[in-house]
Write a structure and sequence with these properties.
Layout (H helix, E strand, L loop, with lengths): L1 H18 L9 H76 L2 H21 L2 H4 L3 H13 L7 H17 L3 E9 L5 E9 L3 E4 L2 E5 L6 E3 L7 H11 L17 H8 L3 H7 L1 H36 L10 H11 L5 H20 L2 H33 L4 H59 L1
Parallel strand pairs: 1-5
Antiparallel strand pairs: 1-2, 2-3, 3-4, 4-5
Length: about 450
């Protein structure tokens, strides 16, 4: 009995601890028992309340489930109705398509060809120069192509006639020279309305300039670089200023830009000279120096030759402004001496005149010899540069080797261009100098012979 009391007390104490604030500290076993009974009654009321709430929720869920099943049944019936309608519409479409094909007959092939021609014409017009003058026709072709690609519409008679008209106009305009106004972009990026001239489907130009047409953007712009030959740009100016029916000479590019591009890419004389590098400039400097010397010698020898020729007509009155006059004056000053002394005096006088008549000729000869050697030097340096490029980058890209090869060839050309005229000028001027010296020697020999005869008599 005592142990039962102890166990009951432990159990009640545990319930009191679990209950927390529900169970207050009991002063007796009866009070503790009342509290336990009250707690059990509260728990039962809460459990009944939860059970009732759950039953209410279960009824509501049953109602919602029944409602969802009803909606599913209605949607299934609607799906069956739509599927039946879809099958019916498919059958009607197939019937209508078959009827359309039967009614089209040969027109179906016509519309197929029309669609193909429309697409080809659009690409041809887009790349043609006539598109600059008639840009609105591209929109018609796009609309016609969209109409032909659609299965719900067909091209009309007006569309077919318009396409035929555009094709005929393209053929006609490619054989005409037309002048009209278009937006042209210059090399600085500025766009302005400019009067241009279209030469068929080959070239489009303005006053003094060739233009280029971009098929991708539809813009007209000046060539980044115009042909260096003045006859081509001059012909564009003449064409732009020509009146109706007037015939002018014009450089037409039948390849529609291919030949013109190569002509524009051709290096100018300045660019070719620049390819020679430092050696090329040195050769040109030698050539200019030699040319100046040759010009000076030409005028001095021409003046001396003319004065000597004038002195030949009057040998009795020597003048000191020419070589022959000075030689004659030397003879007059030594008429009283013996023949050997006269000969020596005249030889001395001729030798004094020789440097003035032959000066600069040696330098021309040196330039004529050095210029090809300098060209050979440039050739060797250019080939060294080429082999260095091949060593670094290989021989796969010829453009990388173009600089060295251009220098090698250009310096050779410059050396020959300088040497050949220098040789010719040296030969010519040397001949004129020898002619004057021959006259001096001839007159000197004549005076010595005359003096010898007088001495013997």
């Amino acid at each position: 009995m005592k142990s039962l009391k102890i166990l009951l007390s432990s159990s009640l104490l545990s319930v009191a601890l679990v209950g927390g604030a529900v169970a207050q500290e009991a002063t007796s076993l009866d009070q503790l028992l009342n509290q336990v009974q009250q707690g059990a009654a509260n728990d039962q009321r809460e459990a009944r309340a939860r059970i009732q709430e759950f039953q209410r929720d279960q009824a509501n869920q049953q109602r919602l489930l029944q409602q969802a099943r009803s909606e599913r049944t209605a949607l299934e019936r609607r799906g069956e109705e739509l599927e039946a309608l879809f099958d019916q519409n498919n059958q009607q479409i197939a019937t209508a398509t078959q009827e359309l094909n039967e009614r089209l007959g040969a027109l179906k092939e016509l519309f197929g060809v029309l669609q193909q021609v429309s697409g080809d014409t659009q690409s041809v017009f887009k790349a043609s120069l006539t598109n600059v003058q008639y840009p609105d026709r591209e929109q018609f072709l796009i609309e016609l192509g969209n109409k032909m690609a659609s299965t719900t519409s067909l091209a009309s008679i007006e569309d077919i006639e318009t396409l035929w008209y555009e094709l005929q106009r393209e053929m006609t305009e490619t054989g005409k020279i037309a002048k009209f106004t278009a937006d042209v972009t210059d090399n600085e990026g500025q766009t302005a309305s400019t009067e241009v001239v279209r030469v068929g489907a080959f070239n489009i130009v303005t006053d003094g300039k060739y233009l280029q047409y971009s098929a991708s953007t539809g813009n007209v712009a000046e060539l980044p670089r115009q042909p260096t030959q003045g006859r081509f740009t001059g012909s564009t100016a003449a064409l732009a200023g020509a009146g109706a029916g007037e015939i002018v000479r014009f450089g037409v590019d039948p390849t529609r830009g291919g030949i013109l591009a190569q002509l524009v890419d051709t290096p100018t004389l300045r660019e070719r000279v620049d390819q020679g590098g430092v050696v090329g400039y040195c050769i040109i400097g030698l050539g200019i120096l030699g040319l100046l010397i040759a010009v000076f010698l030409f005028f001095s020898l021409t003046a001396a030759s003319s004065k000597v020729s004038a002195q030949l007509k009057d040998t009795s009155n020597p003048k000191t402004n020419n070589p022959l006059g000075r030689v004659l004056a030397t003879y007059d000053a030594n008429r009283s001496v013996d023949t050997e002394t006269v000969e020596l005096k005249l030889s001395e006088a001729v030798l004094k005149e020789t440097p003035a008549l032959t000066r600069g000729l040696l330098f021309l000869k040196v330039i004529a010899a050095v210029a090809p050697l300098a060209g050979l030097l440039g050739t060797v340096t250019g080939m060294i540069k080429t082999f260095q490029v091949i060593t670094l980058y290989g021989a796969g890209d010829p453009k990388l080797m173009a600089g060295g090869i251009s220098q090698a060839l250009m310096t050779t050309v410059l050396g020959l261009v300088v040497a050949i005229p220098m040789i010719l000028l040296h030969t010519y001027l040397n001949g004129r100098s020898r002619r004057v010296l021959s006259i001096l020697q001839e007159q000197s020999a004549g005076m010595i012979a005359e003096h010898s005869e007088k001495s013997h008599h």
